[in-house]
Amino acid sequence: MMNTDLKVSVDLSNSKLSFDDFRQIIKKDYEFAVQSRIVSLLGRKEVLTGKAKFGIFGDGKELAQIALAKVFEPGDWRSGYYRDQTFAFVSGISTLYHFFSQLYANPDIEADTSSGGRQMVAHFSTSLLDEEGNWKDQTILKNSFSDISTTGGQMARTMGLGLASKLYRNNKDLSYLKYFSKNGNEVVFCNIGNASTSEGVFWEVINAAGVHQIPAVISIWDDGYGISVPNEVQTTKGDISEVLKGFQRDENGSGFEIFKVKGWDYAGLCETYEKAAKIAREEHIPCIVHVTELTQPQGHSSSGSHERYKTKERLQWEVDYDCNAKMRQWMLDAGIATAEELIEIEDKAKDFVRIEQRRAWSDYRKMLQSELEEVVSLLSEINEEVVELPLKTLISTSESSLKEVYSTVRQVLRELRFKDSPQKEALLIWYKDKQKLNQDRYNSALYVESDKSPLNVATIEALYGENAAIVDGREVLNACFEANFKKDERILAFGEDVGKIGDVNQGFAGLQDKFGDMRVFDTGIRESTIIGKGIGLAVRGLRPIAEIQYLDYLLYALPVLSDDLASLGYRTKGQQKAPVIIRTRGHRLEGIWHSGSPMTVLLGALRGIHICVPRNMTQAAGMYNTLLKSDDPALVIECLNGYRLKEKMPDNVGDFTVPLGIAEIMREGTDVTVVSYGSTLRLVQEAALELDKIGISIEIVDIQCLQPFDRTHLCAASLQKTNRLLVVDEDVPGGASAFILQQILEEQKGYYHLDSQPLTLSAKAHRPPYGSDGDYFTKPAVDDIIESVYQIMNDVNPQQFPDLF
Questions:
Q1: What is the pLDDT of residues 400-422, one digit of tens each?
Q2: Cβ contacts of 81 within 8 Å, gap of 6 or more
Q3: Sheet of strand 491-495: strand arrangement
Q4: Which of 88, 157, 519, 770 has the fewest Cβ atoms surrounding its Cβ within 10 A?
Q5: Is there a contact between 105 and 53 (Cβ–Cβ < 8 Å)?
Q6: HEC secondary structure over 348-402
Q7: Is the pLDDT of residue 199 over 80?
Q8: d(CA 235, CA 426)
Q9: 3-state secondary structure of 457
């Protein structure tokens, strides 16, 4: 592990720079440091005066981030967090104007270029897509993956971003993808706070990065605390680089190069990052830079004060070892600048920051003022007493928000509900027109909205020859994957047991032998990193299929799926995408830990990811074909007990498509509509045979996808015929079945077609015990389905269908 110390003397004997050139570089860096510090101080004031809602800043980390920015080249990637403002300013990822625009939550994407007002301040991202949703040339950009607030959350995708460079360097079949890499020379720079190294995802990624030897430089900003909790409570030995020593590379094998440097040591920081970047870029060896003795002059955020938990001695130390102050003194001692020159730099920085802050605030207020004036003008034309008070209140508000403007309009329209006038009509027209604008401002881009959406993929029917082979379902999947791998070198698959044995159910059997271990490969048991790997690879132009062995295990990756992948399009307002496919299997297998169907969790956490629940492997194959032609992320949940069930092999197994969100009637009927999906669908079909004997005809609808849900409203159309509804699934009571009911009864207005109470049939509230008996008494069985349908008919006609029990 390398340690560096402050170098006060300056030796230029071997330098190509003149001393004056050297001085100018140092002075410019100091100007950046001062600017960034003033941004933090002024930003906090803006929060405390009420002009902004919340602030979190990077003060105390200026010098380390300036040194890091010096080695950040076009094509490189940043996977950082909300303390990286100095790095963002110096590298050009963001500007002071954009920073303050984000602080004020300006919804104009030209003002807050990172998120269009959707993220809190200091969450940076680069626009990776053009207006048509096509990838920009990443090799000429300084790429920043969109930040998330989840502590440690930036680690997972770092693995994929770095692995992409590895694959672009070693897999020559990818050399044509020149917009994404220049021979794998790109480094991913991941920044994380010292407290967040306690997170499990940090250790997952450190382990995986060491295994794969990805070109990453992971900086740990160590200011000694995690909010109020000191390192001694956070970390063994109170020092993360001491703990990580076992990962240090040596002559016996691969590992990390680990550096330790003080955050106020400007020269040492520059030297350290130059070495680390060179090792990562040229040798593809990951590096850790532990930056210690950092300070946090304003505490954690604008919501608290660090004086509450730091001693007087610690607070004084932070004053004495403030990185900006230390650099200032070093510049004076080394003769790099005079006191007068530094004062001039500081005054100039203050003026510039204030100008940019005022410009950002002015532009934000102009947007608000424009709509405020329009509303005031429209309301002033309405000669009604009920308008007077809302109008006066709105005018008197010193700094109104869009919320107040639109709330006033809606209040007035409610008050005028019995009135008709041209003036009211003008207000109503204005409101409806602005709703389109506000939809774009605040509710757009949850999914891809370009022609690359999977909803725009043309439907191609599966074709079968006269002598179509009858095979295991797993063989259909295997043939589908092989056909796609042949067509597209960008596709790769990975997960636990995916490589050598072709996954536990043989969907990828033999494909590693055919396409090599750079395209089909095993991973360790680290679900968060598997998903993060997929995200990073996808955003760098590849088409990953990331496998999570069982649906239950998806929960271990939920923060990465929910916080990072699902929200990516929304939080960047459509400027970034990661078309990763997550493949897993679940439902009917017996036992507490392999039989879960946590659809409630997925529906609540994964808005922004399509959720596909195919009934068999042919439907799954068609969905994979659709997804590989489009650019949205998706989760495909295969039926675990369906791999050895017999299916016909389509002639066009790699080409036919199954549209997402299109339900299908599997059996026509007249008495009750039964809606289901996945493995329970086969049980419903079995139950239908006995129900026929009883004299009850059920119509069976396979929804096929939970997100999007039944886009053609087939469920409601079926209800128009039967007027009765049963929803069957394996989630807990009130889980996915409640969502399905809401979609059918409310969204599709199926409520108006009901003649009897709709019912749901789900699993019990607990997980199923092991064994067939446990499964029978826990999850919907054929008997349960028959009796639930019978109960509906008993309520309708008790004479024909008397009580059973």
A1: 799 999 999 999 999 999 999 99
A2: 147, 148, 151, 153, 154, 191, 192, 193, 196
A3: 520-522, 491-495, 543-547, 581-586, 634-639, 610-612, 705-707
A4: 770
A5: yes
A6: HHHHHHHHHHHHHHHHHHHHHHHHHHHHHHHHHCCCCHHHHHHHHHHHHCCCCCH
A7: yes
A8: 63
A9: coil
CA distance 487 to 444: 33
Q: What is the CA radius of gyration of the chain?
A: 30
**620: amino acid identity, one letter:** A
pTM for the model: 0.95
Mean pLDDT check: name the lowest of 70-79, 80-89, 308-317, 778-787.
Answer: 308-317
**Pair 770, 590: CB distance under 8 Å:** yes
Output the pLDDT for position 17.
67
* Polymer length of the chain: 805
| Rounded Cα–Cα distance for residues 201 and 152 (Å) | 7
| 41, pLDDT greater than 90 | yes
pLDDT (average), residues 227-248: 94
Closest Cα to residue 99, out of 565, 153, 574, 90?
90
Nearest to 460 by CA among 699, 577, 580, 628: 628
In DSSP terms, 491 is beta-bridged to 543
Task: Return the structure tokens found at 131.
Answer: 């207006």
**Nearest 5 degrees, angle CA 189-CA 195-CA 199?**
80
Rounded CA-CA distance 448/630 in Å is: 9
Name residue, tokens 């100091």: 30
**Pick from 244, 333, 326, 311: nearest CA to 60:** 326
Tokens of 595: 């039989």
DSSP sequence for 755-782: SS--EEE---SSPPPSSHHHHHHHS--H
pLDDT score of 11: 42
Rounded to 5 degrees, what are φ and ψ at 77?
-125, 140
Sign of CA dihedral 129, 134, 140, 145: positive
Mean pLDDT of 781-801: 97
Three-class secondary structure of residue 712 per DSSP:
coil
Which amino acid does the sequence have at 590?
Answer: E
Instruction: Judge whether 468 and 649 are in contact, CB under 8 Å.
Output: yes
Tell the burial category of 13 from Cβ atoms under 10 Å away from its Cβ (0-12, 13-18, 19+).
exposed
Place of tokens 């170098």: 7
Collapsing DSSP to helix, strand or coil, 449 comes out as: coil
For the chain, helix, strand, coil in percent to 5 are 45, 10, 40
Determine the Cα angle at 84 with ends 79 and 87, to 5°: 95
**Residue 453: is its pLDDT beyond 80?**
yes
Task: Find, among 310, 295, 317, the residue nearest to 228 by Cα.
Answer: 310
Structure tokens at 179: 């917009």
What DSSP state is assigned to residue 556? G
Plot region of 143 (φ>0 → left; ψ -120 to 50 → alpha; else → beta):
beta
Quote the tokens at residue 105.
């939550």
Tell me the C-alpha distance between 139 and 177, whole Å.
11
Among candidates 790, 735, 733, which has minimal Cα distance to 765? 733
Name the band, by pLDDT with cuts 50, 70 and 90, for residue 3.
Answer: low
pLDDT at 564 > cutoff 70 = yes
| Omega cis (within 30) before 768 | no
